[in-house]
Amino acid sequence: MITDRRSILAGLALIAATPAAMAQAQKVAPATPITDFAGVKTATDYYIGVLGPAEASLTTSQLAVERATNKDAHEFAGFELGEAITVNEVLKDLGTKSSVDTNAMASIEKIKGAAKGEGFDRAYITFQLENHEYLRDIADAYLHNSAGATDPMEKQGRLLASPSVDET
Q: Rounded CA gap, 48 and 91, in Å?
């Protein structure tokens, strides 16, 4: 059985933060806040849009593996780290060029600055939730904008962007 990782992330966010704790949580911006995804039409556009958040996820998950104190946040960080390593390797193998993302750097610095313990755990989970929401939105936009693509590169890009594999 394959579980949608977005569901796991949402569950962890609920576990790691009560409403009162969320009100106090340090707001951490998604790695690359693009609000207009109309330009995400090719696999290359999609890969470029994903690499910054993937790199930020890698860095923050490495920190969380070391510093998370909540057992669920720590376990999630381990899963997220493995995923981030794979995504980064795939994107770089595809020739995706990394660029310095000032928003990602600011998010990483905020998480690094969070004190170990509940504050760090909340900052990490909040960042991951917002980062995954961004990744969901860019994937949805790319899938919509590239519908009907027949080029093999675009078909592969669409498979990578799909939330689940259609086995039909």
A: 8
φ, ψ of residue 2 to 5 degrees: the values are -100, 130
Angle at CA 141, nearest 5°, toward 40 and 160? Answer: 85
The 10 Å Cβ neighbour count of residue 39 is: 11
Burial degree of 139 (CB within 10 A; 0-12, 13-18, 19+): buried
Q: What is the mean pLDDT of each run of 10 residues along the chain (168 residues)?
A: 46 41 41 64 92 94 96 97 96 87 84 90 95 94 92 92 67
pTM of this prediction?
0.75
Concatenated DSSP letters of 138-167: HHHHHHHHTTT--SHHHHHHHHHH-SS---
For residues 132 and 31, what is the distance between their CA atoms, to the nearest angstrom? 10
DSSP labels, 85-152: HHHHHHHHHTTPPP---HHHHHHHHHHHHSPTTHHHHHHHHHHHHHHHHHHHHHHHHHHHHTTT--SH
* Torsion-angle region of 148 (φ positive above 0: left; ψ -120 to 50: alpha; else: beta): left
Contact assessment for residue 43 and residue 157, using Cβ atoms and an 8 Å cutoff: yes
d(CA 8, CA 27): 21
